Amino acid sequence: TEHFSVVKDGSGGYDGSVLFRVKENGDTWLTPNAGNVGIGTTGPGNYNTNANNLVVYETGGHGGFTIATDTDKTGSIYFADGATGTSAFRGRIEYSHVNDRLGFGTAGTANQFYIDSSGNAWQADGLYFATDQVRARDGDGLKLYDDGGNGIFIEDGGNVGIGTTSPTSLLNLASSGDAVLKINADTDNLN
After folding, report:
1. C-beta of residue 44 within 8 angstroms of C-beta of residue 54
2. I need a surface site. Which of 69, 90, 108, 187 has the fewest CB within 10 A?
3. Distance set, CA 103 to CA 72, 106, 117, 133, 152 (Å)
Protein backbone atom coordinates (compact mmCIF):
# COMPACT_ATOMS: atom_id res chain seq x y z
CA THR A 1 0.00 0.00 0.00
CA GLU A 2 1.29 3.43 -0.90
CA HIS A 3 1.15 6.24 1.66
CA PHE A 4 2.21 8.95 -0.76
CA SER A 5 2.68 9.06 -4.52
CA VAL A 6 3.48 11.74 -7.10
CA VAL A 7 3.09 10.76 -10.73
CA LYS A 8 3.27 12.94 -13.82
CA ASP A 9 0.30 11.83 -15.83
CA GLY A 10 0.41 11.98 -19.60
CA SER A 11 -2.98 11.74 -21.34
CA GLY A 12 -4.63 9.09 -19.23
CA GLY A 13 -1.67 7.19 -17.76
CA TYR A 14 1.84 7.24 -16.36
CA ASP A 15 4.24 8.44 -19.06
CA GLY A 16 7.50 7.61 -17.23
CA SER A 17 8.60 11.19 -16.61
CA VAL A 18 8.41 11.37 -12.80
CA LEU A 19 7.47 8.81 -10.18
CA PHE A 20 7.93 9.30 -6.43
CA ARG A 21 6.41 6.84 -4.00
CA VAL A 22 6.54 6.06 -0.28
CA LYS A 23 5.42 2.51 0.51
CA GLU A 24 3.88 1.21 3.73
CA ASN A 25 7.08 -0.71 4.57
CA GLY A 26 9.07 2.54 4.49
CA ASP A 27 10.68 2.02 1.07
CA THR A 28 10.94 5.24 -0.89
CA TRP A 29 11.94 5.55 -4.48
CA LEU A 30 12.24 8.17 -7.17
CA THR A 31 12.12 7.05 -10.78
CA PRO A 32 12.79 9.88 -13.20
CA ASN A 33 12.69 9.61 -16.96
CA ALA A 34 16.02 8.24 -18.32
CA GLY A 35 17.17 7.30 -14.80
CA ASN A 36 18.95 10.57 -13.88
CA VAL A 37 18.16 12.61 -10.76
CA GLY A 38 19.22 16.22 -10.38
CA ILE A 39 19.28 18.18 -7.13
CA GLY A 40 19.83 21.83 -7.91
CA THR A 41 19.92 21.13 -11.66
CA THR A 42 17.36 20.29 -14.31
CA GLY A 43 19.99 18.69 -16.53
CA PRO A 44 21.70 15.77 -14.71
CA GLY A 45 22.00 14.00 -18.06
CA ASN A 46 24.43 16.69 -19.22
CA TYR A 47 27.17 15.43 -16.86
CA ASN A 48 29.60 12.55 -17.33
CA THR A 49 27.56 9.51 -18.35
CA ASN A 50 29.59 7.27 -16.01
CA ALA A 51 28.33 9.19 -12.97
CA ASN A 52 25.19 11.18 -13.80
CA ASN A 53 22.51 9.03 -12.15
CA LEU A 54 22.54 11.49 -9.25
CA VAL A 55 23.95 14.98 -9.75
CA VAL A 56 24.05 17.48 -6.86
CA TYR A 57 24.70 21.01 -8.13
CA GLU A 58 25.22 24.23 -6.22
CA THR A 59 25.49 27.46 -8.14
CA GLY A 60 27.65 30.20 -6.66
CA GLY A 61 28.96 28.18 -3.72
CA HIS A 62 30.36 24.88 -2.53
CA GLY A 63 28.35 21.73 -3.22
CA GLY A 64 28.17 18.32 -1.64
CA PHE A 65 26.13 15.82 0.27
CA THR A 66 26.36 14.52 3.82
CA ILE A 67 25.97 11.05 5.30
CA ALA A 68 25.09 11.51 8.98
CA THR A 69 25.07 8.66 11.53
CA ASP A 70 25.10 8.29 15.30
CA THR A 71 28.47 8.59 17.08
CA ASP A 72 28.65 4.82 17.65
CA LYS A 73 27.89 3.94 14.01
CA THR A 74 29.51 3.95 10.57
CA GLY A 75 28.58 5.93 7.44
CA SER A 76 29.20 4.09 4.18
CA ILE A 77 29.20 4.27 0.40
CA TYR A 78 29.09 0.83 -1.23
CA PHE A 79 29.88 -0.15 -4.82
CA ALA A 80 28.04 -3.24 -6.06
CA ASP A 81 27.66 -5.40 -9.13
CA GLY A 82 24.76 -7.43 -7.72
CA ALA A 83 22.29 -7.52 -4.84
CA THR A 84 23.34 -10.62 -2.89
CA GLY A 85 26.46 -11.91 -1.14
CA THR A 86 29.72 -10.09 -1.77
CA SER A 87 28.32 -8.77 -5.06
CA ALA A 88 26.41 -6.25 -2.94
CA PHE A 89 29.65 -4.70 -1.64
CA ARG A 90 32.50 -5.15 -4.12
CA GLY A 91 34.06 -1.90 -2.97
CA ARG A 92 33.36 0.55 -0.15
CA ILE A 93 34.26 3.77 1.57
CA GLU A 94 33.34 3.86 5.26
CA TYR A 95 33.75 6.38 8.05
CA SER A 96 33.74 4.91 11.57
CA HIS A 97 32.75 7.38 14.28
CA VAL A 98 33.91 4.91 16.96
CA ASN A 99 37.48 4.68 15.58
CA ASP A 100 37.46 8.16 13.99
CA ARG A 101 38.89 6.82 10.74
CA LEU A 102 38.06 6.55 7.05
CA GLY A 103 38.38 3.08 5.53
CA PHE A 104 38.55 1.77 1.99
CA GLY A 105 37.92 -1.83 0.94
CA THR A 106 37.47 -3.93 -2.18
CA ALA A 107 36.43 -7.40 -3.31
CA GLY A 108 33.93 -8.01 -0.54
CA THR A 109 36.59 -8.04 2.22
CA ALA A 110 37.05 -5.92 5.33
CA ASN A 111 38.47 -2.42 4.89
CA GLN A 112 42.03 -2.73 3.66
CA PHE A 113 43.31 0.84 3.97
CA TYR A 114 42.60 3.48 6.63
CA ILE A 115 43.25 7.14 7.31
CA ASP A 116 42.81 8.15 10.94
CA SER A 117 41.98 11.52 12.49
CA SER A 118 45.69 12.33 12.92
CA GLY A 119 46.28 11.96 9.18
CA ASN A 120 48.10 8.66 9.59
CA ALA A 121 47.51 6.12 6.82
CA TRP A 122 47.78 2.40 7.42
CA GLN A 123 46.82 -0.83 5.76
CA ALA A 124 45.72 -4.30 6.79
CA ASP A 125 48.30 -7.08 7.18
CA GLY A 126 49.32 -8.89 4.03
CA LEU A 127 48.80 -5.91 1.73
CA TYR A 128 51.47 -3.84 0.08
CA PHE A 129 52.01 -0.55 -1.68
CA ALA A 130 53.22 -0.95 -5.24
CA THR A 131 55.36 2.08 -5.95
CA ASP A 132 58.78 2.93 -7.24
CA GLN A 133 59.27 5.91 -4.94
CA VAL A 134 58.80 6.76 -1.28
CA ARG A 135 59.52 10.33 -0.30
CA ALA A 136 59.59 12.12 3.04
CA ARG A 137 57.00 14.88 3.25
CA ASP A 138 59.42 17.38 4.83
CA GLY A 139 63.03 17.84 5.98
CA ASP A 140 62.58 15.58 9.03
CA GLY A 141 63.75 12.49 7.13
CA LEU A 142 62.05 9.16 6.52
CA LYS A 143 61.52 6.50 9.20
CA LEU A 144 60.61 2.85 8.60
CA TYR A 145 59.77 0.95 11.81
CA ASP A 146 58.68 -2.53 12.77
CA ASP A 147 56.02 -3.02 15.46
CA GLY A 148 58.72 -3.00 18.18
CA GLY A 149 59.96 0.47 17.24
CA ASN A 150 63.18 -0.77 15.59
CA GLY A 151 63.93 0.47 12.16
CA ILE A 152 65.80 2.42 9.55
CA PHE A 153 66.05 6.19 9.40
CA ILE A 154 67.03 8.09 6.27
CA GLU A 155 68.11 11.58 7.24
CA ASP A 156 67.45 14.59 5.06
CA GLY A 157 70.73 14.74 3.13
CA GLY A 158 71.13 10.96 2.74
CA ASN A 159 72.73 9.56 5.92
CA VAL A 160 71.18 6.22 6.92
CA GLY A 161 70.76 5.12 10.51
CA ILE A 162 69.95 1.59 11.62
CA GLY A 163 69.12 1.62 15.30
CA THR A 164 69.51 5.42 15.44
CA THR A 165 67.53 8.41 14.20
CA SER A 166 70.65 10.61 14.31
CA PRO A 167 73.11 9.05 11.84
CA THR A 168 76.47 10.86 11.81
CA SER A 169 77.86 9.13 8.70
CA LEU A 170 76.63 7.72 5.39
CA LEU A 171 75.75 4.47 7.23
CA ASN A 172 75.49 4.51 11.02
CA LEU A 173 74.72 1.28 12.92
CA ALA A 174 73.72 1.60 16.57
CA SER A 175 72.73 -1.06 19.08
CA SER A 176 72.44 -1.47 22.82
CA GLY A 177 74.60 -4.59 22.33
CA ASP A 178 77.26 -5.25 19.71
CA ALA A 179 76.67 -3.36 16.45
CA VAL A 180 77.53 -5.96 13.85
CA LEU A 181 77.56 -5.54 10.09
CA LYS A 182 77.46 -8.91 8.36
CA ILE A 183 78.26 -9.23 4.66
CA ASN A 184 77.70 -12.60 2.99
CA ALA A 185 79.59 -13.55 -0.16
CA ASP A 186 78.50 -16.00 -2.83
CA THR A 187 80.04 -19.49 -2.92
CA ASP A 188 83.18 -18.48 -4.86
CA ASN A 189 83.74 -15.41 -2.64
CA LEU A 190 84.07 -13.12 -5.67
CA ASN A 191 81.00 -10.96 -5.05
Report:
1. yes
2. 187
3. 16, 10, 12, 24, 28
Let me know if 147 is exposed, middle or buried by CB neighbors in 10 A (0-12, 13-18, 19+): exposed
Q: How far is CA 180 from CA 23, 94, 147, in A?
A: 74, 46, 22
Q: How far apart are CA 144 and CA 116, in angstroms?
A: 19
Would the CA dihedral through 39, 40, 46, 50 be positive or negative?
negative
Q: Is the pTM of this model over 0.85?
A: no
Look up residue 5 and give its amino acid.
S
Rounded average pLDDT per 10-residue block, the chain, 191 residues: 58 55 62 71 83 85 90 91 83 91 79 83 70 78 80 89 90 83 74 57
